[in-house]
Amino acid sequence: AHHPWRAPPHNRIMAKIVARSILSRLGLPLFYLHEKSLRLCEPLLGARCSSSSSNGGGAASSGRQVGGVVGEIKGDSVDVAIIGGGIVGLAIARELVLRYPKVTVAVLEKEKRLVPHQTSHNSGVIHAGIYYEPGSDMARLCVEGARRMFEYCEKKGLPCKRVGKLIVATQESELQTLEELYKRATANKVQGLELLNTKQVLDLEPNVHALRALHSPNTGITDFAAAACSFADDFLASSRGRIQTGFNVNRIEADERKGVEVHSKCGKPVKARWLITCAGLHSDYIGHMAGGAKGPTVLPFRGTYHELKPEFRKVITRNIYPVPDPKFPMVGVHLTPRVDGHVLIGPNAALSLAKEGYNFWNFNFKDAMRFAVNKGLWKLLLGNTKIVLHEIWRDINAHAFVGEAQRYCPTLKVEHTTKGWAGVHAVAIDDSGKIIGDFMFEKGKSGIVLNLRNAPSPACTSSLAIATAVVDRAASEFDWKAAKFGKA
């Protein structure tokens, strides 16, 4: 069974996109599609490896289902190929077709459905821009992205709420960090911030105990998977886009004169004049494959969530976050109400031995071996040994996990909760073991590739703003003024 906040199965989500695209082309209203309507579109999906297929077929003839192709572009060549079918890749594709009236774009996703990883496995929080270094791309794009995400969700009728957020200090040692967060957020032009005392906190949240708290009324919640699928709808409605799922990239050939060929493990290569990569957890592998630098290394940190049982969900009404440890830039175990009515506790941040290590026992030999010889990782682990071991302990011990939230919400008990699910978030580090605290863009050595090498949280919040920044950068570095895309 699929949790309501996770992306639905491949056929369901792709069928819905196809159906919406057809309705849009016919000028019909984009009403919520009934289950029977979805089934009508499913025969259009599920391309197979076959020498006779023109949409990703290849030499193999086993009939193994490898995904689907949706979109009205014919042939194997497009102007721009995008590797990555998460929220950022889909936002970039949408931005391209909205800005350039003649551009053709293909989105290539290795999984059999869209938004399968970080986009659909997160807290669903629209961040206000509190934590990030003033003047950084992350700070600027988060503040702009939050505003645009609220506007987009309201315009499209997608679920979103400005529930607000409290960052709570429960110890004297945390008060200075809280003050610094307030100054940083103010410098980032986050609106409506207040520092609250103990009584003011209790007035807002009777079950939350804190010495002081930073109140951000404009922090919100949404369903980022739904937003990403809406981006896909917008993209395909242009009739100049194609989405290919089950396209697992294994080789990239990029030459300034010949263009780009993106090869997969099964099917014909996709040819493009330019390539943009935003491969999330695999952005180091794909970026290097596309002609970028070998680093930074992207580490997978598994974040486990617990849920409050239905009868205890009213314990809080807004996001409650601890003051983060400045030595380890994770936001800590927090309480988060969701747009579907669920309330989450989490996540922790335990290093996984697989890029897609959604449970404690997941292991990928290739990933683990690369981590084992990475000097930066060893420096990170040895410099934060206590924190690393504590995160692993919380991952396997429910009492320790819930105990983190009990520091600021003492009425919580383990028996009020149930084990939920896990997400894996990408954390990029350099050779010194330092966690990279900003979005990172890189032009490939071929001159026709742009890599998004680091896009951790708040990438979902920032996705529309990141898309604008990426297309601006691509237009400049690829000299798109000379391209015949139509006027921007």
User: How would a textbook summarize the main sheet?
Assistant: 9 strands, mixed
Estimate the global geometry from the Cα principal axes.
globular
Radius of gyration from the CA trace? 22 Å
Low-confidence stretches: 1-11, 22-66
β content, as a range? 15-25%
Mean pLDDT across every amino acid position: 87
| Number of distinct beta strands | 23
Relative helix content = 25-40%
What structural class should be given to the helix and strand makeup?
alpha+beta
- Individual helix count: 13
The span between the termini is 44 Å
Q: In a few lines, what is going on in this structure?
A:
It contains 13 helices and 23 strands.
Features:
alpha+beta; 5-stranded antiparallel sheet; globular
Structural account:
- With 488 residues, this protein is an alpha+beta fold.
- 32% of the residues lie in helices and 23% in strands.
- It has 13 helices and 23 strands.
- It has helices at 10-26, 35-41, 87-99, 137-156, 175-187, 198-204, 224-237, 283-289, 365-372, 375-383, 385-396, 398-406, 459-477; strands at residues 47-48, 65-67, 69-71, 77-83, 105-108, 125-126, 160-161, 165-169, 194-197, 212-216, 220-222, 241-244, 249-255, 259-264, 270-277, 297-308, 319-322, 334-337, 343-346, 350-351, 417-429, 440-443, 449-454.
- Strands 3, 4, 5, 12, 13, 14, 15, 22 and 23 form a 9-stranded mixed β-sheet that branches. Strands 16, 18, 19, 20 and 21 form a 5-stranded antiparallel β-sheet that branches.
